[in-house]
């Protein structure tokens, strides 16, 4: 690695510390962290963030099925596209907030997450109420399921915005496309940019665009990339940005609710059936 690369790495570490330690100054510094870390590094930090988050939630062991409720938009999606025995994939299912109510409504559900502690709590709740839901520990980018295994897929809690880099979001969507039946519905939750264009924010954005492309920087950094308290997220600038991103991989949009940060989409055809090498691990 060149001295410039080492310098950029140290700058990123310093900005991460500032972003975590301070609020206002940290928010400003957080604009620049994605400029010096690759999408792979940002996605790895996102996973580490949730490992720490779940580790600190001792109360997760007390989660019960009645604690799991759908948001209004999720309920509307289930009512419109759910049918008895339809197969649902819930990504980033955590302790089963969405998966359990969907299973109790008569659907067959598989929930996927990386955090084992959350999955164990989810499976315990499902078993207690005899819901048709199972939970697997697996990588979102290498889902251990055959092509067209599901009729519907769901990603909530703004997690689409937590995937760093447009190329990574495309890769993830292609994997979801593979495991969902052609024409099957996919619901994504994202973060729209509603923040005021303050002077400080305009300055930081101008600097990012000026610095992007220099040796050691992340050339995939986009306007709207943020880093706060160890957590990356991408703020979509306007509906056209999201439409363009999804259209680029052949998605058909059925609904885009900018205010709620929700999009419903489908694909006409799936990719060839190539199973991931790392099968998901059921929890017990």
From TrEMBL:
One of its GO terms (molecular function) is S-adenosylmethionine-dependent methyltransferase activity. Gene3D superfamilies: Vaccinia Virus protein VP39. Residues 90-187 form the Methyltransferase type domain. This is Methyltransferase type 11 domain-containing protein.
